[in-house]
Amino acid sequence: MSAIKTLLGVVCFGHLTSAVLYSSPTEFVPRDYDYIIVGGGTAGSVVASRLTEIPDVSVLVLEAGISHEGIINSQIPLFCTTLTPNTPYDWNYTTTPQAGYNNRSVPYARGRMLGGSSSVNYQVFMRGSADDWNRYAAVSEDDGWNWNNMQQYIARNERVTPPADNHNTTGEFIPSHHGFSNGSAISISLPGRSTPIDDRVLQTLQEQSDEFPFNPDMGGGDVLGIGWMIASIGHGQRSSAATGFLEPALPRDTLDVVVNSHVTKLVQTGTEDGVPSFHCVEFAEAAGAETKRVCASEEIILSAGSIGTPVLLQVSGIGNRDELTSLGIETIVHNPSVGKNLTDHPLLAGVWTTKGNDTLDSMFRDASLLDSYVTEWTDNRTGPLVSPIANHLGWLRLANNASIFETVEDPASGPNSSHWEIIISNFWAVPGIPMPAEGNFVTITTALISPTSRGELQLVSSDPFEPPLINPNFLSTDFDIFALKEAIKAIKRFMSGSAWEDYIDAPYGDFANANTDDEIEAFVRNSAASIYHPLSTAAMSPRGAGWGVVDPDLKVKGVEGLRIVDASVIPYMPNAPTQGPVYLISERGADLIIADLDDSIELC
Ligand SMILES: Cc1cc2nc3c(=O)[nH]c(=O)nc-3n(C[C@H](O)[C@H](O)[C@H](O)COP(=O)(O)OP(=O)(O)OC[C@H]3O[C@@H](n4cnc5c(N)ncnc54)[C@H](O)[C@@H]3O)c2cc1C
Ligand SMILES: *[C@@H]1O[C@H](CO)[C@@H](O)[C@H](O)[C@H]1NC(C)=O
Ligand SMILES: *[C@@H]1O[C@H](CO)[C@@H](O)[C@H](O)[C@H]1NC(C)=O
Ligand SMILES: *[C@@H]1O[C@H](CO)[C@@H](O)[C@H](O)[C@H]1NC(C)=O
Ligand SMILES: *[C@@H]1O[C@H](CO)[C@@H](O)[C@H](O)[C@H]1NC(C)=O
Ligand SMILES: *[C@@H]1O[C@H](CO)[C@@H](O)[C@H](O)[C@H]1NC(C)=O
Ligand SMILES: *[C@@H]1O[C@H](CO)[C@@H](O)[C@H](O)[C@H]1NC(C)=O
Ligand SMILES: *[C@@H]1O[C@H](CO)[C@@H](O)[C@H](O)[C@H]1NC(C)=O
Ligand SMILES: *[C@@H]1O[C@H](CO)[C@@H](O)[C@H](O)[C@H]1NC(C)=O
Ligand SMILES: *[C@@H]1O[C@H](CO)[C@@H](O)[C@H](O)[C@H]1NC(C)=O
Fold first, then answer.
1. Which PROSITE patterns is this protein grouped with (predicted)?
2. What does the pLDDT look like over 265-307, one tens digit per residue?
């Protein structure tokens, strides 16, 4: 970018008077900004917040969804299960028929409001293993992404808060592994309510410590074992990118946010240093509505997520030339990696019925009881509704002598990283499948953490409002089906411990018939779904690599003016649900943007 542009955009900035949250494009009169952020989701909110901490840097956020304000179900932690799929807060995607799932399509939830998926997710909060980040550094050839360098962003990004019930958390986590930020940050906490299975889990960890060791804190780089869950919940309420980052930034008169604004096109505005430059975007409230255009002197930041970002790149002419041409889209940059290499964590829940009724299920069936808990939550931010989806989770490996390793190289990110995950909930916690009318349940959710399957997104037309074909290609490799089957066998061993004898009745539904190897395989293929962690559709790769969509500084390859900061740039699945890694990518992404700004200020 030129010094002149920076001079106009930054130093001579001063035409805005106050920050505004516009409820639609119709109300909004486009002006010029230093930065435009596409998508006010998890990453977009962090970047907007960090950039506007710099005086005089002006930022516009365009968000397709609604405002998060006043959406009570998004605030109440345990109501996370009601927010998706197929609700006003969801993009309502589904996958293509998955061959590995016996041709079933499964829901593919994505948040559609300020805060994005962090406003609708299940609030499990982790950041992955040291191995994961060291792999990101190795794959991108940028040591800045390694575990040691990312520690500064952990400190800045999170704020440990007391659990809602104020219990003594000694022994449940290791404070030095965590951030106690005083600024804009995501609030995190240990479970705010004990459950009748907490002690049974801990007893099982003692009795079967070889297979299921206790991990005193999975935030320090070594994730292996089972421990207490940390969630993005503060003072009994969901902490999202909207509440943790956008809200504190909104009073700044350098930030404008427009909701109900779907960005439909990245507009090429010229050529700079021999490559196409993009400094404007077009947006509209809905298909057929009036389209507006707005421009940024510095950069357009794409934070539309693993689905939205590659769709927008492609409808704007950045993608595989053959595919774009067949849809009548003029190619500006031929890049066959856009939308490819989609990866995700397959999810599979094993459910058991319980002998008694001391689970959260009863409450969900008793409207007046539930009402009283909503009142308690509203008045005091206490009671069962402050609960995260589980009080314990863990990260586990296949045995070193597992037969699959005779033919397949271990795909885990390192020796201290897992192949599969376990989440232990004292209620029916099966995403997308409603609770049965009767019964009380314990759910052990498993997820395959080191998948080797890769899928893709495919546009079906040049229309930016048209959902793409989403094919995660679940369980398409021998390793993936092997590992998820082993996870199912392992959770049965976990539940066979003496701690559960008087509590658990029997496996429920098809899970009850999954005993032989073939039956387990049938159960896996008939019942697995997604834990909603799509990544890698605009992956980072080394500068000059023959694949990948962004350089390690997150700038889009082959163009000027575009950067991507969201889940799509992460090249491999982490040992974590994905919000934590996205938050950390966003913190460093904001630093990289600001570093370039500082350089150009020196030019002035
Ligand atoms: C139901 C569910 C449960 C999950 N549970 C967990 C969990 O427990 N723990 C965890 O760590 N992770 C969880 N995740 C995953 C995690 O929330 C996501 O990986 C992460 O939030 C993604 O961040 P992002 O910034 O890449 O995308 P998002 O947060 O999804 O943000 C993208 C934003 O861009 C907007 N957008 C898209 N296209 C456009 C466009 N063209 N114009 C304007 N705006 C656009 C979207 O509306 C959205 O607000 C879950 C996700 C879901 C959906
Ligand atoms: C998703 O489905 C819900 C429920 O039918 C609907 O209200 C919402 O508008 C849909 N969202 C989109 C983006 O189509
Ligand atoms: C899935 O669909 C493919 C293609 O239509 C077909 O060949 C295959 O037999 C189907 N598999 C199952 C299990 O139905
Ligand atoms: C919490 O428990 C630990 C260990 O049992 C104890 O040392 C500590 O004093 C307790 N803290 C408070 C505030 O009670
Ligand atoms: C937050 O503020 C407290 C009290 O001022 C201070 O002790 C602590 O170091 C600060 N934490 C961070 C991460 O800045
Ligand atoms: C997918 O990622 C791998 C590296 O993990 C890379 O070698 C390959 O070229 C990528 N494929 C595409 C189409 O980008
Ligand atoms: C739960 O079981 C107890 C007996 O153990 C019974 O008194 C109570 O009514 C039951 N509650 C519900 C909601 O079924
Ligand atoms: C809120 O807390 C107060 C003080 O502990 C208590 O008296 C009140 O009953 C609580 N409200 C509800 C609805 O539980
Ligand atoms: C792996 O080793 C264990 C003993 O450590 C043994 O019990 C088991 O049978 C071995 N499994 C295989 C597949 O060889
Ligand atoms: C794995 O973790 C152990 C224990 O925390 C540690 O000693 C070891 O160095 C780690 N190994 C690697 C390769 O990171």
1. GMC_OXRED_1, GMC_OXRED_2
2. 999 999 999 999 999 999 999 999 999 999 999 999 999 999 9
Atom of ligand 3 minimally distant from the CA of 102: 13
In ligand 10, the atom with minimum distance to the C-alpha of 130 is 14
- State the distance from the centre of ligand 7 to the C-alpha of 192, rounded, in angstroms: 24
350 beta partners? 444
What domains can be seen in the chain, in order of their start residue? Answer: 4-69+252-342+536-597 (3.50.50.60), 134-242+343-530 (3.30.560.10)
Three-state DSSP state, 561: coil
Measured between alpha carbons, how far is residue 71 from residues 56, 88, 246, 371 in Å?
32, 11, 16, 17
Total number of residues shown for the chain: 604
Does the annotation place 20 within a ligand binding site? no
Q: Is 333 one of the annotated binding-site residues?
A: no
- Say if residue 264's pLDDT is above 60: yes
Decide whether any atom of ligand 2 lies within 6 Å of the 92 Cβ.
yes
What totals of helices (H) and strands (E) does the chain contain, helices first?
Answer: 15, 26
Strands (E) across 367-512 are located at 392-396, 420-425, 441-448, 455-458, 469-471, 504-507
Characterize 360-397 residue by residue with b for buried, 16 or more Cβ atoms within 10 angstroms of its Cβ, and e for exposed. bbebbeeeeeeeebeebbeeebbbbbbbbbbbbbbbbb
Give me the residues paired with residue 535 across strands.
Answer: 343
Q: How far is the C-alpha of 236 from the C-alpha of 163, rounded, in Å?
A: 7
Strand partners, 280: 267, 295
- Burial-class residue 351 by CB neighbours within 10 Å (0-12, 13-18, 19+): buried
Q: Report the alpha-carbon distance of residue 318 to residue 306 in Å, rounded.
A: 15
CA 197 to chain centre: 28
